[in-house]
Amino acid sequence: MKSDTQSILIIYTGGTIGMREDPMTKTLSPMRFELIQDEIPELHKLGFKIDSVTFSPPIDSANMTPEIWIDLAKTIKECYSKYDGFVILHGTDTMAYTASALSYMLENLDKPVILTGSQLPIGVLRTDGKENIITAIQIAAAQRKGKAIVPEVCVYFSSFLFRGNRTTKEDSQQFSAFASHHYPKLAIAGIDIEYYYGLINYPSSKGTFKINTSINDNVIVLKVFPGLNRKYFESILSLPGLKGVILESYGSGNMPTYPWIFEAIKSATLRGVIFLNVSQCPGGRVKMGYYETSRELQEAGVVSGKDITIEAAVTKLMFLLGQKLSADEVVEYLNQNLSGEIEN
Ligand code: ASP
Q1: Fewest CB atoms less than 10 Å from the CB: which of 33, 62, 257, 289?
Q2: How many Å apart are CA 212 and CA 104, to the nearest integer?
Q3: pLDDT tens digits for 39-69?
Q4: For residue 35, what are the domain limits?
């Protein structure tokens, strides 16, 4: 691996990694990237050419929006030929959503796009930010026979490299904040960074890199729970302009068999609303028709989310609804694996 010539672009969007405590209010808010760089003199030792851009203003990722995903995709597109890899510094709260959205928006990707952040700000003595950012840069720069080792949108966090659209933030306290319940780690950073080549997606087509930034945010997530109120359920499903609903169901995709649930879903489907069934369980997968309690959903036209995460599902639905597709085509693509987000 040639290690001294790679060029990496760091895109700083905000997040705890670059936050500082306000002495008055004692709350954390993002600071400028130059101040972050001062905290990591080790960056110079990597031997790569490292440039950075800062999104203005840097945000707490709780304020993430589809517009910022589009700006990220455009930034990567504009700089694509100049860099060997990209590292996005991002808050952990919505990192899995951004990684998922980018995995659909960046087409024919053949360079690494690695999202990372930290649980403790970079200026704090016990910060996890330094290791995360340094290793993320090394992964973004890693090549074998002149080609990127991980040409995917990934999340690197606390020694593990995950496929981005398989991740979920599952711990707000431990350094190991992310999990990928349905797909194995792509690499583990111990003494060496061990890559699992057989699990990494390598672009099969010779198509050139391009971005697709059409997004439609007329979607909602509806979580089912015992006592789900009919009035609210029906009025949400009849909201004007609603295009897509993620039903967060029980277990292997089950919902109560109350006739009014079936009727409300059926009538929204007839108006062109698309339903995607995603399980509340982090493990396992949706198996529509396995129980009586999901067979009717299937009849009403609800699509199985299979083993998709909620983050990958929301962004996939937004992405597909943003394309010029008929409802049938959206359903067809929801059933397909677009960029490693489901196993069929
Ligand atoms: N609220 C922060 C954010 O998502 C949390 C973090 O970065 O870990 O921006």
Answers
A1: 62
A2: 8
A3: 888 888 999 999 999 998 899 999 999 999 9
A4: 7-211
